[in-house]
Write a structure and sequence with these properties.
Blueprint (H helix, E strand, L loop, with lengths): L1 H5 L3 E2 L15 E2 L3 E4 L2 E13 L3 H9 L10 E4 L2 E11 L6 E4 L2 E6 L2 E3 L16 E11 L5 E3 L4 H7 L3 E20 L7 E21 L7 E22 L17 E22 L6 E11 L11 E3 L1 E9 L6 E3 L8
Parallel strand pairs: 3-5, 4-6, 5-7, 6-8, 6-9, 8-10, 9-10, 10-12, 11-12, 12-13, 13-14, 14-15, 15-16, 15-17, 16-18, 18-19
Antiparallel strand pairs: 1-2
Amino acid sequence: MLQDTLNWPLVAPLPSYGRGRERPGGRYMSFILGDGIHDVIITGENGTIDGQGGVWWDMWRDKTLQYTRPHLIEFMYSQQILISNVIFKDSPYWNIHPVYCSNVVVRYVTILAPSNSPNTDGVDPDSSSNVCIEDSFISTGDDLVAIKSGWDEYGIAYGQPSSEITIRRITGSSPFAGIAIGSETSGGIKNVMVEHINLHNMGVGVHLKTDVGRGGFIRNVTISNVFIENARKGIKIAGDVGDHPDDKFNPNAIPEVKNIKIIDVWGYKVLQPGLIKGIKNAPFTNICLSNIHLFGSQEPRTTPWQCSDVKGAAVKVSPWPCSELVSSPSCSIPY
């Protein structure tokens, strides 16, 4: 297998990333790659696509990677895609990566990788629109679902947002996030609906993440009906997460985070209920938390809610969050 990696074909960097996500230059080609295609179905009677990722994970750990690891499946510039009734196992890197795509449905899939496998995200829609991810089980070493839209100055220049994204009825576990937005947000992410999510043994239940230099935006996001059991953090919204492709990023490219509604979340054995950390002089705005109940285990909770540089409202939240979120009889966010 190692000999195979030496001869593995390469593909060009994505224009919205400017280079490989892990290493400068090109990328190792995904196991299944579709470029500029339409009306595609990948399905099976729960048969398994095995990425045999171990050798790639070891190269990452040993710092011997020459290029960015391959995805299990990547579709580029494609539309009308259905992936269903398949088990994806041990991807070298992200499992399913639709980028610059539209009308994508991922349903009835199982995605598996060890909890210590690096960067084995489940499904990562990237600068794509009209995406539905539903009725699936995901247990990996990184975010179960992560919505992205390009990396710093390259993503800003490419300017293609991720939008009209639905994520529902997902169950899973990960040392990182259950539902993530970002941190690559440079083309913008908008109009996202997440509902009926069951998470166990998590790092963070819901994580919206971006950074100075990203630019772009995260806006019009509604997340509801989430159950979290055994997690370090329940909810995290942060403007200081992520690395940069090079030193050419614009430190004045400040991302906008606004119109975020998180409602009907319940959890226990959650060490910290939440953290919201906006960006100095560019606070996150219209953040609404409603009917959220995140409890620790029997021991005293070590960390309460923490907030800074945020404006919004809280309704029926326990334990009570930060003073920056004013008590309000309802969440009235205009979207």
